[in-house]
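WARN retry 2 of 3 for item q-0093 after timeout on previous attempt; input resubmitted unchanged.
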Amino acid sequence: MILYGYVIMSNHIHMIVQSNDGKLSNLIRDFKKFTSKTILDKIQNEPESRREWMLERFKLATESHSRNKNYQFWQLGSHAEEIYSEKFMWSKIDYIHFNPVRAGIVLKPQDYIYSSASNYVDGKGILEVEIVQIPFVNVMNPISILKYISYDE
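OK item q-0093 returned
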């Protein structure tokens, strides 16, 4: 998997990814399978004050899906969009990086730890990403930030 950008929010995740072998659906399937098993294992086997509440939520989610018997962590399906130009790529990168700003969590995208915004600003982040070159929007320019925020609101 080649990861170009991401943001992990409390109730959803956005990623810009590319499959090394061109099979994106397989990559997403395997990603969801691995992460759900890992997270559910951590919830069940490590100290977690909300364990029972979370497991009950995941159990209730199985009622509308016959695929999973015990717990449903991810919603079925994904909303994949093909990146067809560099300009479109940057609009998606900016959109995902500004999620925590729009949510009122941080003032600047790079201050949100669970995002690739800091990778793009100072080259450091909690995950490695493939940096897309030649940005169309300068996220450090307050004028472009204001235009971007007012456009989304």
